[in-house]
Amino acid sequence: MMEYIIFSALFIVLHIISYYTAGAINYRFTKDIYTGEDSLSTYFLRDTSKKEEALRINKLLIPGQIIRGLLMSVVLYPLLGPLGELSFVLRFAFLGGIMLIYADFASAIPFCNTIEGLIYMKKRFVTRDIFLKIGSEAVIYSVLFGLLSSYFLF
Length: 154
What we know:
The chain is built from six helices and no strands. It is mostly helical. Helix 1 (about 1-35) runs antiparallel to helix 2 (about 50-75), helix 1 (about 1-35) runs antiparallel to helix 6 and helix 4 runs antiparallel to helix 6. The protein is globular, with a radius of gyration of 17 Å.
């Protein structure tokens, strides 16, 4: 039981580090998508340039990421033994790939960088530029998480 608790706790920490790092890097190139009255996300995301919205997001961000990290870690419990037996490169490919594919591109949520988004969203939300800008954050997160988790979790 303790092995699972330690795994989840460390998983959560690595997830949060990867999430914040990818977000900080990517935000420098995508700020125009997320802030301002005429931003692309005006229709469906809170405007982080407004103080009250930014405060709300900051208040909920860490608890939300802890819950996400916990849920993602729990579904891996049955695979801990086999994952531990894989080489570093295979663990990286699996863990980074599962984050990139399952948690992002193949997600059932229609967004600017998912397959569902390409199907259901209006054309103005899924241009190549927007897809690459938002998708690059998922790539950065997945690579970083894959590297960190492959090294520290096993």
